[in-house]
Amino acid sequence: MSIKVFRCTQCGATLFPARYLCPSCGGAEWSALDAESGTVTAATVVRYRVGADSSGGVPLASVATQAGPIVVARLDSPAEIGDTVNLALDAQHRIVARRD
Ligand SMILES: [Zn+2]
Predict the structure, then answer these.
(1) Distance, CA 28 to ligand 1 centroid (Å)?
(2) Which of 6, 13, 26, 88 gives the lowest tally of CB atoms within 10 Å of its CB?
(3) CA distance 29 to 70
(4) Global confidence as pTM
(5) What angle do CA 59, 60, 66 make, to 5 degrees?
(6) Sheet harboring 14-15: ordered strands across?
(7) What is the mean pLDDT of residues 86-92?
(8) Are strands 84-89 and 3-8 parallel, antiparallel or unpaired?
(9) Alpha-carbon gap, residue 47 to 10, rounded angstroms
(10) Distance CA 44, CA 35 (A)
(11) Could you give the count of Cα atoms lying within 13 Å of 56 in the half-sphere of its Cβ?
(12) What is the count of structural domains for the chain?
């Protein structure tokens, strides 16, 4: 399943996630765009509190989608800044980034 980003039909601003009103122009009409891939702009590992998860944390990446907005995705495979990744939703509707 691909993720959707939203483009304001009045001014063309793109957003993720959707908002009720466009922060640029106040418009309230959106068209949905598929964001199938993007470029990693930051990567980090989020560590849960001790005892919550023994696996060492969840690797997350900020991904600048080709549609415009930056989304935060869980990294399914190691990726570095500048890498191109494919974006998809998992069964829990979380964004997952995977390198080609
Ligand atoms: Zn707008």
Answers:
(1) 8
(2) 26
(3) 20
(4) 0.82
(5) 140
(6) 14-15, 3-8, 30-35
(7) 92
(8) unpaired
(9) 41
(10) 21
(11) 2
(12) 1
Q: Which residue has better confidence, 90 or 57?
A: 90
Residue tagged 């009720």 (tokens): 20
Residue numbers of the domain that contains 64:
3-99
Centre of ligand 1 to C-alpha 19, Å, is: 11
Those residues whose C-beta lies under 8 Å from the C-beta of residue 90, and which sit 6 or more positions away, are 74, 96
Please give the distance, rounded to the nearest whole angstrom, from the Cα atom of residue 80 to the centre of ligand 1: 32
Count of residues in the chain: 100
In eight-state DSSP terms, residue 61 is E
| pLDDT value at 1 more than 80 | no
Q: Tell me, what CATH number does 67's domain have?
A: 2.40.50
- Distance from the alpha carbon of residue 57 to the mean position of ligand 1, in angstroms: 37
- Joined together, the tokens standing for residue 21 give 């009103």
DSSP-assigned states of every residue in 36-92: -EEEEEEEEEEPPPTTT-SS--EEEEEEEETTS-EEEEEESS---TT-EEEEEE-TT
CA 49, 81, 94, 78 dihedral sign is negative
